[in-house]
Task: structure prediction
Amino acid sequence: MDVVASGTVLGAKPTDSPDRVRAILGSDFAENSLDDHSMWRDYGMAEFFWIRESPEHPWEGHHFTLQVHRLSHWGGSIVTSSIRDRYGRFGRRLRFDKLERLLGKRGVRLEDVPDVNTPAFTQHWQPASQVSVMVFRAYEEWQQRRRGDDRIGDVYAIYSSVSAEEVARNRERHGRRNAR
Result:
């Protein structure tokens, strides 16, 4: 709830430097890069992404993603200790209806947004924090359900920053239909 309401992970913003994120989330991460212009750090469930013009330029924060779907396979052990220390144990699932209800009690509302991943997923956006919540909605015909797989109604991922412009493009491109 705090991530959706604040647009941060324990106060780490999507625009923060790698050093600032490490100071907040700790040094237990895997660092990945495809080239000299992009990098991401995987903190288990949380991932932070950076870009830069060239190796001579500093890293600029781009976005973060909470890979909530990883909980269904690894449980709370996938969550970095800094997040567990703050919030305690994590279950294997985060149900969207529960998240939406609890956010509503805090006065935090989500807007449904049409998404390219429909019908398998729905997208829900919080304008003030610019956070988006992707929810698993349907199995593809080719998928076979396995133990630990996501269930319909599970939060799949939470990510930031999703701008109003991006939401407007999705609405124009994918229609204003109700995403649920």
Notes: The helical segments are 2-6, 18-25, 71-74, 81-87, 96-105, 164-174. The radius of gyration is 17 Å. The chain has a mean pLDDT of 90.
